[in-house]
């Protein structure tokens, strides 16, 4: 599998370990940076580039996943989720790693490198990569709703506040119905 990875200064040591680990396991690793330590670097562009590559590869039918990590994993998850088609999950134990794939078909895992030992974080990523999406209808339905909202700003048959309509004034009355048939 092709694995796109990205981090910031907080995860650079773990990145070197992870790249060796995943390559030894037979994966094709694509590193989106950073390439050297800079305590003042910024995670958004690295993680967004990894997420764009995952989204592009998936659209091309290439088997791929993304791994982003920093001090907490929070900002890295937020950055990855800005990219269309990306479902990035913040994982903090084996259960959330497995559920991110089973229920959410997450295509990016985010990890807080400062929150875990190297062995723990590596085991979460291995579990995430190994786990398939169940494909169960209820999970597929919910994922489709997220994709629909991402593409259109609405979810057919569901109430979505007009505040979330990209064409609406952000100060619109929250009671304004956003339901569309
Ligand atoms: O959510 C963001 C990540 O955890 C960053 O890795 C973290 O904020 C970096 O913190 P600092 O700049 O204090 O090393």
UniProtKB/TrEMBL annotation:
PANTHER family: DNA DAMAGE-REPAIR_TOLERATION PROTEIN DRT102, RIBOSE-5-PHOSPHATE ISOMERASE B. Pathway: Carbohydrate degradation; pentose phosphate pathway; D-ribose 5-phosphate from D-ribulose 5-phosphate (non-oxidative stage): step 1/1. This is Ribose-5-phosphate isomerase B. Keywords: Isomerase. Homodimer. Belongs to the LacAB/RpiB family. Gene3D superfamilies: Sugar-phosphate isomerase, RpiB/LacA/LacB (3.40.1400.10). It catalyses: aldehydo-D-ribose 5-phosphate = D-ribulose 5-phosphate. GO terms for molecular function: ribose-5-phosphate isomerase activity. Its EC number is 5.3.1.6. One of its GO terms (biological process) is pentose-phosphate shunt, non-oxidative branch. The lineage of its organism: Bacteria, Bacillati, Actinomycetota, Actinomycetes, Micrococcales. It comes from Orlajensenia leifsoniae. The keyword Ribonucleoprotein does not apply. InterPro entries: Rib-5-P_Isoase_Actino, RpiB_LacA_LacB, RpiB_LacA_LacB_sf. Pfam families: LacAB_rpiB (PF02502). D-ribulose 5-phosphate binds at residues 8-9, 71-75, 104, 114, 138, 142.
């Amino acid at each position: 599998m092709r694995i796109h990875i990205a981090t910031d200064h907080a995860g650079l040591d773990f990145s070197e370990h992870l790249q060796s680990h995943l390559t030894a396991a037979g994966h094709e690793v694509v590193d989106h940076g950073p390439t050297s330590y800079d305590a003042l670097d910024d995670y958004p562009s690295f993680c967004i580039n990894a997420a764009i590559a995952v989204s592009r590869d998936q659209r091309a039918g290439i088997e791929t996943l993304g791994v982003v990590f920093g001090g907490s994993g929070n900002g890295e998850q937020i950055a990855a989720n800005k990219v269309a088609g990306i479902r990035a999950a913040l994982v903090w134990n084996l259960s959330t790693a497995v559920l991110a794939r089973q229920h959410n078909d997450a295509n990016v895992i985010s990890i807080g490198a400062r929150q875990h030992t190297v062995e723990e974080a590596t085991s979460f990523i291995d579990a995430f990569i190994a786990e398939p999406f169940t494909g169960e209808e209820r999970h597929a339905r919910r994922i489709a709703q997220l994709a629909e909202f991402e593409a259109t700003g609405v979810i057919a048959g569901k109430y979505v506040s007009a505040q979330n309509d990209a064409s609406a004034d952000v100060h619109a009355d929250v009671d304004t119905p956003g339901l569309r048939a």
